Amino acid sequence: LETQGKWDGLSYLGAAGFTTHTISTVTRSFTDNVFAGRVVLGQQWRSFDVGAELDLRLRGYGGNGYPYTSLAGGADFVSDVMKAHANLGVQWASSSRGEDRFGLRAVGQVYFFIRPSFTIQAHGSTGLRPINLQQLLEANPYLSDTLVIDAPYDVADIGGVLLFHPLMRLSVSGGVRMRRSDRDAVWVPAADHTFEPAYLSTTRITVFGDVRWLASAQDAIVADLEFVSATVDGHSTQPYVAPVLASIGHDRQWTPSLRSVATLMYVGQRFADLRNAEILQSYVDIRLSGMYSFSQAFSVQAHVSNLLGSSFQLWSGYQERGIFIRGGIPWK
Q1: How far apart are CA 65 and CA 35, in angstroms?
Q2: Burial class of residue 254 in the structure, from the number of CB atoms within 10 Å of its CB (0-12 exposed, 13-18 middle, 19+ buried)
Q3: pLDDT digits (tens, 9 = 90+) for 172-201
Q4: Which phi and psi (to 5°) does residue 95 adopt?
Q5: If 0-12 CB within 10 Å is exposed, 13-18 middle and 19+ buried, where does residue 147 land?
Q6: How many other C-beta atoms are found inside a 10 Å radius of the C-beta of residue 120?
């Protein structure tokens, strides 16, 4: 449910919703229930757009609640040569064990438009980074039924991006990001060949680049390359974080209703434990997708992954499936 509007120069937005997410296996079943509410107020003051936001999330699974609340104020500024955003607020969260977590959320982001074809972007933030059971399930379906959900705390998350777009059809960007976190979720083995997050201090440095090229009115080529250094305090490399990720994809709009996407992905070798004794080998994954829209509300989709039928592991002890085909009929 959502409502928005304006009253005497004050813009407002109110939203509320409920979601539930369930995954079942032979031995266990998880259900994550979330009631979320959000109120946003905004008004123009001199050359700034100022506002406030209340974010409330009542979350729970298996009788364990882990709510999250934040209250923040922010401002935006836009000129011909720059765009800036700042946000400051307080946060409160509770782990599924009932431990209270408090944070001061501060965010800053700025864009400098050096030339029509050249942009510099920089950002920095600190504060709680709430996670939920659905995110953990989507990352790893082999969860322990004794896992604890907590709120990681980013001590500092800073970075910058250089964007070069010499042509309307071509853009090239590159950047670096550094994040220092307390209570970061690090995957470790649990009982019965399952996994759970251990909340440890981590440091992650990412260097990345990408290319976007509109080869024609129907064709788009996208390529991404990422190098990651992720370490855990008191140990070495963070488990299940690939040091190299690369992909190249072709998106083709055959007709106004028919679209296809082909993607080649490379994932580098990863460690599977905190001692860095077990290695999961690198792999290549080729994916194909096709979508046909009968209307704005109704379409059919088909997706094929691991087209080469490669043998690899995403999680220690679990061999991934070979060629996998799935489809769906979305209706809006």
Answers
A1: 11
A2: exposed
A3: 999 999 999 999 999 999 988 889 999 999
A4: -75, 170
A5: buried
A6: 15
**231 C-beta neighbours (distance < 10 Å), count:** 15
Question: For 2-19, how does the pLDDT look when each residue is reduced to its tens digit (9 = 90+)?
Answer: 999 998 889 999 999 998
User: Rounded distance, CA 287 to CA 267, Å?
Assistant: 14
Q: Reply yes or no on whether the pLDDT at 26 is more than 70.
A: no
The DSSP result for 90-136, as a single string, is EEEEE-TT--EEEEEEEEEEEEEEEETTEEEEEEEEEEE----HHHH
Q: Which amino acid is at 316?
A: S
Residue 306 backbone zone (phi > 0: left; psi -120 to 50: alpha; other: beta): left
Q: 271: closest CA among 230, 304, 306, 301? A: 230
CA angle (245 as vertex; 313, 250 as ends), nearest 5:
105
State how beta strands 299-305 and 313-315 pair: unpaired
Question: What stretch of H or E contains 197?
Answer: strand 195-214
Dihedral sign for Cα atoms in the order 265, 196, 205, 84: positive
Calculate the average pLDDT of the chain. 92
Task: Work out the end-to-end distance of the chain between its first and last CA atoms, rounded to an integer number of angstroms.
Answer: 15
Question: Do the beta carbons of residue 128 and residue 103 sit within 8 Å?
Answer: yes
Q: Tokens at residue 177, please? A: 């990001």
Within 13 Å and on the Cβ side, how many CA atoms surround 27? 9
> Residue 164 pLDDT more than 90?
yes
270 by DSSP, 3-state: which? strand
C-beta separation of 316 from 280 below 8 A: yes
**Token pair 């001692």 in the structure block, residue:** 275
Residue 39 near residue 10, CB atoms below 8 Å: no
- Residue length, the chain? 332
C-alpha to C-alpha distance for 297 and 292, rounded to whole angstroms: 12
Strands 68-78 and 64-65: unpaired
